[in-house]
Design a protein that fits this description.
- Strands 1-2-6 form a three-stranded antiparallel beta sheet. Strands 3-4-5 form a three-stranded antiparallel beta sheet.
- It has helices spanning about 5, 30-40, 85-105, 115-120, 130-135, 150-160, 165-175; strands spanning about 15-20, 25-30, 45-55, 60-70, 70-80, 110-115.
- It is globular and about 55 Å long.
- It starts with a helix and ends with a helix.
- By secondary structure, it is of the alpha+beta class.
- It is built from seven helices and six strands; from the N terminus they run αββαβββαβαααα.
- Helix 2 packs across helix 3 (about 85-105).
Length: about 180
């Protein structure tokens, strides 16, 4: 397993965006590129299985499971609106589940930002500007290192600021 490759930031041109609910912009890496990254970093020794699928009136939901050997198992739901065929929506929901499972392994493939208006109204938002977040949505506020969404969210909840793992350890030592 090549952890450095697994967690390496994707080039900016590979990050796509779409508008979401409540003024959110979602940035993501297409599932094909995430699968390519998993293949390279894990030497093709991983598998993905759809455990369950749900079809609602306007949306499909897929529970997918990503396995690496016998020790590492991640499960995550993916969802997609039904805008065309149910099959296309299920494919999109499966891609979403693959990305979410990969993100649980710290593959930096899902990001989101608030609209500028929401950032102005929300003091809990990340200290980064929308333009910085487009370039790389998650960065340490001390050393500007790339970090994952999970590290960003945990750090902000725990320390009320965005810190990479190294600076989180330093903050813990200072708190003692």
């Amino acid at each position: 397993m090549n952890l450095e490759l697994l967690t390496k930031q994707f080039p900016r041109e590979q990050i796509k965006s779409r508008q979401g609910k409540k003024g959110m912009t979602y940035y993501y890496v297409p599932a094909a590129l995430v699968i390519e990254r998993l293949n390279e970093a894990l030497n093709y020794k991983w598998s993905f299985t759809v455990i369950k699928e749900y079809i609602f009136e306007n949306e499909t939901v897929v529970l997918g499971e990503l396995r690496i050997g016998t020790d590492i198992v991640k499960q995550a739901f993916g969802n997609a609106p039904i805008n065309g065929t149910v099959g296309d929506a299920l494919k999109s929901a499966t891609s979403d589940s693959i990305r979410k499972n990969a993100a649980a392994l710290n593959v930096p493939c899902i990001f989101h930002t608030q609209s500028e208006q929401q950032q102005g109204n929300n003091q809990q938002s990340s200290p980064q500007s929308p333009q910085q977040q487009t370039d790389n949505p998650y960065r340490c506020s001390v050393c500007d290192a790339n970090i994952t969404k999970q590290i960003h969210d945990y750090s902000f909840r725990t320390f009320n600021k965005v810190l990479c793992m190294k600076h989180q350890q330093e903050a813990r030592k200072q708190a003692r």
